[in-house]
Amino acid sequence: MSTIIYPSPIFGPVQSRRLGISLGINLLPADGKVCSFDCIYCECGFNEEHRPQQPLPTREEVATALERKLQQMQEDGQMPDVLTFAGNGEPTCHPHFAEIIDDTIRLRDQYCPQAKVSVLSNSTMIHRQAVHDALMRVDNNILKLDTVDIDFIRQVDHPNGTYDVNTIMERMKAFDGHIIIQTMFLKGPGIDNTTDHYVAPWLEAVKAIKPQQVMIYTIDRETPDQSLRKATHEELDAIRDRVIAAGISCTASY
Q: pTM to 2 decimals?
């Protein structure tokens, strides 16, 4: 099984299916995974198999490394389209996430003001006021909602500790539209959230949250659970079209 453990605190740039030329910001250790989910489709593998020994990068280390990389990219004449918080787990778990967002916006404005700041999050920390406020300051607040079915969430996303999907949805509404919902569609033994049983209530939740955009996608890299399969183009297109018909911008990545 091939897994991807990203360098820290800066990696890339990489070509993102959804975001363009993306310079990655990884707030987790470089030698393992730290996440409040343990998704069976995560390209970084299962949490238990990649326990880190190194500490989280400090706020100062992130800012220094980011500025150094942006200076290099400026000299090379290739600036990023987006600065993306992603990497080896959940970025909003970092205790200084909000301050790091402020540093990143400052450096973006100095070196590449045309670039967007994006955060890919599983939504588990949005109850924290500092996290909520920081996500309101970024350009692309991309929050995961794979389904509203708690049994599916427990089977596929494996949240650590208490996870109340209804509370998550209410917290998403609190962004007043400054949110992009990201949803993974996939199949496997006893797993298939492309069917109407899952899509219809998910779509009702999306309409209630009123995001600025929805991004739907499927498996792109090897997964730790190797029984999983991609959703088809036709299935993703049909779901995308239902979201668009509801008056919400939606893209599908295959």
A: 0.96
